[in-house]
Amino acid sequence: MADDDHVKDIAIYKAALGDKWASVSKLFKDNPSLMTKRITQVGEMPLHIAVGTNSSHSFVDELVKDIVARGENHMLFKGNKYGNNPLHFAAMVGNMHATKLLLKHNPDKTQTRVRNKDGNMPLQLAAWHGNKETLEFLLKETPDLLPDEEGVGPYSGVAGGDLITRTIMAGFYDVALDIIEKHPDIVFLKDSSKKSPKTALEILAQKPESFASGRRLGLWGSFIYSLIPVKNDEGTTDHSKV
Fold first, then answer.
1. How confident is residue 151, by pLDDT bands cut at 50, 70 and 90?
2. Do the Cβ atoms of 129 and 94 come closer than 8 Å?
3. Domain 1-143, CATH
């Protein structure tokens, strides 16, 4: 979020921060383009600001309603200078109200897979910022890539590595187990750490306090290994037994 010196329209900015829709409703009615105007130096619109407060819910409701009424649903997902759209903001601050509202207007869920300039989807940001409820909701709403789609899905590559390592580092072990059960290979994926990229197994090995036995990996690790697919003697996929 910006400070006053980097805001292009202080009145709208403060209204979005303070959940004061009434103070700008006439302004928006007279000049609807202001609803989607970039009002900070980093390209944030009023919706970015309001969503980012995680408290200006009435402002968000009215703003979204009016933007949609103008047939400009696509403007709900415009990114700022860093590629963060309002759904990224909602994931970062754990704004469930905005998350559900935005996805209501994106029924094909495509926006859940949009990456910012750091390569993060809303999923990874929810995990990184420790917003468990938002993370669990986005996991249900974020589809993987279909076989005929190009690109890297949210549960593969560096994106998958970030998702699982950040979930574990946040202490959301139940969520991590759910992810691993559905995507066993994710435990081998390295995250995007520049100094020393790590896998989920490496993160777990550094956190013996996370297991009831107090030993490295322990029962948690055994369960993870039991989910990892391996090739048996017949060449078919099976699960290792630990």
1. confident
2. yes
3. 1.25.40.20
